[in-house]
Structure formats: structure tokens, C-alpha cells
Amino acid sequence: MSLHLGVVRVLTQEDYEVTALHGRLIEDRYPSITTTSACIDDHPDGIPDEAAEKAAEPYVAETARSLAPTVDALAISCALDPAVDELQRTLDIPVIGAGRAVINTAQTLGGAIGTLSLEGGVPSYIAGLLGGELHASVSVPGAETTNYLTTDEGRRSIEAAAEQLVDDGCDVIAPICTGMSTAGVLPHIAAEQPVPVIDPVLSIGSVAMVLDSGHGVASPG
Amino acid sequence: MSLHLGVVRVLTQEDYEVTALHGRLIEDRYPSITTTSACIDDHPDGIPDEAAEKAAEPYVAETARSLAPTVDALAISCALDPAVDELQRTLDIPVIGAGRAVINTAQTLGGAIGTLSLEGGVPSYIAGLLGGELHASVSVPGAETTNYLTTDEGRRSIEAAAEQLVDDGCDVIAPICTGMSTAGVLPHIAAEQPVPVIDPVLSIGSVAMVLDSGHGVASPG
Questions:
Q1: How many helices (H) and strands (E) does chain A have?
Q2: Residue of B nearest to A214 (CA)
Q3: Is-contact B18 B27, C-beta < 8 A?
Q4: Which of A221, B26, B130, B198 is exposed most, by the fewest CB atoms within 10 A?
Q5: Are residues A194 and B92 in contact, defined by beta-carbon separation less than 8 angstroms?
């Protein structure tokens, strides 16, 4: 089995290896997956909230369509799942959004879910997916955009926020910004906390691993 | 990374390698996972419906508890998720039920989900998880219990039922009995059909792969 996954980043960056970071995290955990990444234009602060998400949808759709012909499946590495519904309806390959992936994985592992978010709080989209299983939510103080998460201060804030969710009685922690994967602190937090901490980028890879060699996915090479 | 997963089978079988089949499927797809399996007593026909599920819960809980001390995480390989809530509340390791795993994976990949079930139809538990995303459901004719699925006739019936779900406009197929994984036809069906076909046993492994070395999961050995 092998799968070539196209990864759309919603943070505009110049260096391919920086753009490719989420894909590399997936490849490291799931060696049978290879990735090709591309980032959307004009979004140096990523997609910090739902208003920005609406505006970014055409950019995401365009970048996804440019990758689609050469990959077996697509990942949209943003927890707001921009353009995911539209792409699922119109492309003939599987499309995985980080939001659904992290929330659905969390729902499999527990029923009192705690979200870690940017300062804007829990987007209504995510709250809708969680319904009554949204037990508590903590915004990382100072995290107006994803770029704060990759500072030393940002990393410490993520750790403190996770601790607060455990104190609040959550049985699973769902970081709802893929910038928390970029920050590199989630493995450490998962090792420290007594409940599962779901990496949103790895949860994309996890869903991709279930895809078999059918449904538009090329045969093992 | 490595993870030792305990797999509870809800079909009573004498031969360990037969009981271990679901674990072997997971190990084959996810080489960093090792499994130890055990089956519940007194259930030669498995758990064919929700009435049987209630009665089986104490058996599942007992078997799970016997495996728990020696594994990093537990899987309950039955789509009705027997005893899963109780085990998640009371054990300090992650517990993964096949029902949540397959449904949540399907929900990540599409919004018009088709279920493949035993003759009893879609259990209310599964219908509740799917809500408005349950687009169509087909029962495999003749499949009063899981044992029928592993006959040649049963395999052909699963294939025909999957085809019907595609004709009905489903964008993802979720087999909601882990006996469909045992039957061995899902890879073939996935290769034939134009939409993702989610293997319920592999979806357990997929969720397990997201677990890191924290939260009760032993460090890589």
C-alpha cells in the first residue's frame, strides 16, 4: 500500500520545506504516505477566524485543484475545513479536512472534549460538529493568529491551556488549529497529560491510512 | 513510536489465530502497532443486534479488563461499541470502539453516508451517530449473524449491497459490522467502487495511530 497525499497549507510561505512541514509530519508517522504540499496566496497570517475562512475559500479551492491531478487524495490543513465540502462534491479523489479529522478522532476516544483554539475562541463550525460533546474550551492567550503559536511564549501558552482543559475534566484534548502541530509541542503535551491529545495534522494522516487502493486512489506503485 | 493494542473480539472462537485476525489486519496496515487479542465467552453468533449488545456488555467489559494491564490501548472490535463508554470512563488507557471509529472516519470523508449492515438493519446507536448524514442503508440479505458474511454467498451479497449504496448516491460506504472485515472482501470492493469504503477494523488502527507516547501509552520500546 502507498498513497500520495496532496497537502494544502493555508498559511502563505515562501520556502517549500516550510510549507511542506505538515506533510513531513504525516510522512514521519505514516511511512507508506508520500506528500506534495502547496500553500495558498495572500495569507501571511493564515486563517485566524471564520470571516477570514469565507474569504479564503476560493484560494483553497484553487490550490487544491492544482494539486488534484497528481495525487491520490487531498488534505486541507486547516481546522475550519475551508472549501472541503465543495471539493468533496466536485473532485473524484478523497478530500480530508483537518477539522473533521481532529474532531472525529476525538469523538472516537472520549465524550467530554476540550478544544484548544486561537484567541477568537471556538468557531461555530467546530462547536456544531461537537454538539453536546464540547465540554470545555480554552483559547491560547496572545494567539491572535497562528504565527504566535510557534514562538517560545506561544508554546508555553499552549501547554498551560492544555493543563487547564484537563483540570476542567476533559477526557480528550482537540487542538483546533493546525498551527499547534507546526509548533511542535503536542507530543510533549501528550506525554505529560493523562488524556489523549489529538494532533490535528496527524489525524489527517490517520484518515488517509484507511483509504485503500480503490476509489480514485492509484494502485501501490 | 510503537503501540501495543489489546483487541477484544465479540465472537467466541477457540483458535487464537482466528480470534487474532482483526489484530493481524491492523498490524499489516500499521507496522508500528502490535496486538494481543481475546474473545468474549458464550457468543458463537457474535452480537447480531442491539438486544444482544446489552446482554454482551458485561462479557466485553470483563475481557477488556483482563487485557488492560498489559496493553497501551484497547480496541472493542464491534460496531455497536459494547461497554465502550463505561470502559472509557473507568480505565486509564484509551479505548477505541469500531462503531465510532468507522462512522467518524466516514464523516470526515463525506456527507452522504451509506451503511452496510446485517439483516437487522441500522442499529439506532449508529443512526444516532450519523444523524442527517445517514443517506442510505442496505442490509446484506441472508446475514442474520456475522457468520454468514464469511461464506462465499455472503461475500457476494456484501459486494452487491455496496453497489446498491453507490447507485443510491452515497459518497462514502461504512460497513457497520466488523465481520465485513473478517470476510476479506472490503479491499476488493474499495478497488471497484468510486467512493471510499471504510474498513471498520482498519479504522480502529487508524485512530490508534494518532495516540502518542503520553496519556497512559507506554514509551516506544
A1: 10, 7
A2: B191
A3: no
A4: A221
A5: yes
Tell me how close the Cα of B159 comes to any Cα of chain A, in angstroms.
14
User: Are B88 and A110 within 8 A, CB to CB?
Assistant: yes
Q: Is B112 helix (H, G, I), strand (E, B) or coil?
A: coil
In terms of Cβ atoms closer than 10 Å to its own Cβ (0-12, 13-18, 19+), residue B73 is buried
Looking at the partner chain, which of B105, B186, B191 has a beta carbon nearest the beta carbon of A104? B105
Percentage of chain B beyond pLDDT 90 is 78
pLDDT tens-digit series, residues A103-125: 999 999 999 999 999 888 899 99
To the nearest 10°, report the CA torsion of A182, A187, A189, A193. 150
Give the mean pLDDT of chain A: 92
Q: Which amino acid is at A119?
A: E
Query: Which three three-digit cell numbers place residue B125?
Result: 446507536
Report the SS3 class of residue A175.
Answer: strand
Q: Which residues of A touch B207 (CB under 8 A)?
A: 105, 108-109, 206
Q: Please check whether residue A145 is in contact with residue A45, taking contact to mean a CB–CB distance below 8 angstroms.
A: yes
Residue A151 grid cell: 514562538
Which strands make up the sheet holding A134-139, listed edge to edge? A134-139, A113-117, A172-175
Beta strands in A53-160 (DSSP E): 73-77, 95-97, 113-117, 134-139
Contacts of B3 (CB under 8 A, 6+ apart): B32, B33, B34, B72, B73, B208, B209, B211, B217
Do residues B177 and B198 lie in contact, with contact meaning Cβ atoms separated by under 8 Å? no
Inter-chain CB proximity B196 and A29 less than 8 Å = no
The C-alpha cell at B200 is 471498520
Beta-sheet strand order (sheet of B33-39): B33-39, B3-9, B73-77, B95-97
The 10s digit of each residue's pLDDT in A155-173 is 889 999 999 999 999 999 9
The rounded distance, in Å, linking the Cα atoms of A138 and A29 is 27
| CA-to-CA separations, A217 to A5, A76, B12, B103, B201, in angstroms, rounded | 10, 17, 36, 21, 20
| Number of CB atoms found within 10 A of residue A18's CB | 13
- Residue contact A214–B202, C-beta within 8 A: no
8 Å CB contact of A193 and B214? yes
Could you identify the residue written with the cell 482466528?
B18
ipTM score over 0.85, yes or no: yes
